[in-house]
Amino acid sequence: MQQLAPVTLASLQERIEPQLEAAYDELCRIVVTDFPLVTDVNSHLLRLKGKMFRPTLLLLSAEAVGGGSKREETLAATVELIHLATLVHDDSVDHSVLRRGQPTVNSAFSHQVAVIMGDYLYSRAILALVSLDDPRPLQVMAMVTNEMTIGEMRELDAFDRLSYDQESYDALIRSKTASLMSGACEVGALAGDGEHREYLKRYGMLLGMAFQVTDDVIDYTESESVTGKPSGLDLREHKVTLPLIAALPNMSASERALVNGLMADPEPSEDVIAAVVDVVSENGGIGAARDRAAGLARDAARELEHVPDGVAKEGLRDCLTYAIERHS
């Protein structure tokens, strides 16, 4: 891949906006209930309408192999629903108070409600998949949700461990983030004859890894006004991500002591967080992580070489650009 030109989410979704809107309407239909508390939480969550990036991957993958039916809109809705469930659980596990600039479910309601609500969203997604009377997308999403659960456990195991290496980090992001993007592309590919299923599955996995690496860079480089959540959140929560992993071998003893001090402090100050961000940047961590994301995107682009040419394939290429060039 050559130097990537900026691509906005709006530009890559413009052509499929009608299908995305239909998928979102389907999501709203799937989660409806007459139980008041669940209705209240649903209303809160739906006000935080996300970027619909994973449904975008599914719809573009389906179109690339010749699909494009109402069935794909339901599948896109279930993918976004599973993603939403993971966010609700993530925020509760991390005790996060903001998501997209708004209160999380656990802060607006309670941690108990957040855990149960995440389970509710998962179960509604499963029911919607069962209703399609096709075991293939259900099998893919069952594997994905299991893999994401393992990813959550890997992330807990990564706390406060400065010996955490890139191999362990890669295993974490493959499970926690990339598995769902891979699953979205694979399920989209089921609209075709199966010839391109593995290529799109691998494309989604590599894209998802690049997306998460970029997300971890953004946590070091962007402000709360851009991301909708506090900057330096990973350091505040003692999460070891690729920028820190890449920078650690280059640090002096005093710089390493600063990082150790942050990790030992249950509530590190903003000044200490800012100082560690500077140290990570000065020791090449952010640059190395960006290079890694770009390399993963190039590998993903090679998988697309096996996919039929067309507007949808170009849209999938644009998704790679967006994944590593975005700022939030």
Give the overall shape: globular
Give the CATH architecture. Orthogonal Bundle
Number of strands: 2
CATH class: Mainly Alpha
CATH level-four homologous superfamily name: Farnesyl Diphosphate Synthase
Enumerate how many helices there are, as a single number. Answer: 17
Structural class based on helices, strands and sheet pairing: mainly alpha
Sheet with the most strands, sense and barrel status: 2 strands, antiparallel
Can you tell me the CATH topology? Farnesyl Diphosphate Synthase
Contiguous uncertain segments of 5+ residues: none
Percentage of helical residues? over 70%
Total count of domains: 1
Instruction: Give me the strand/helix succession.
Output: HHHHHEEHHHHHHHHHHHH
State the strand order across the main sheet: 1-2
**Radius of gyration over all CA atoms, rounded:** 20 Å
> How much of the sequence is in beta strands?
under 5%
N→C terminal distance: 23 Å
Average residue pLDDT: 93
Report what the structure shows.
- The chain contains 17 helices and two strands.
- Strand 1 (98-99) and strand 2 form a beta hairpin.
- Strands 1-2 form a two-stranded antiparallel ribbon.
- The chain is globular, with a radius of gyration of 20 Å.
- With 328 residues, the chain is mainly alpha-helical.
- The longest helix has 25 residues, at 70-94.
- The chain has a single domain, classed as Farnesyl Diphosphate Synthase (Orthogonal Bundle).
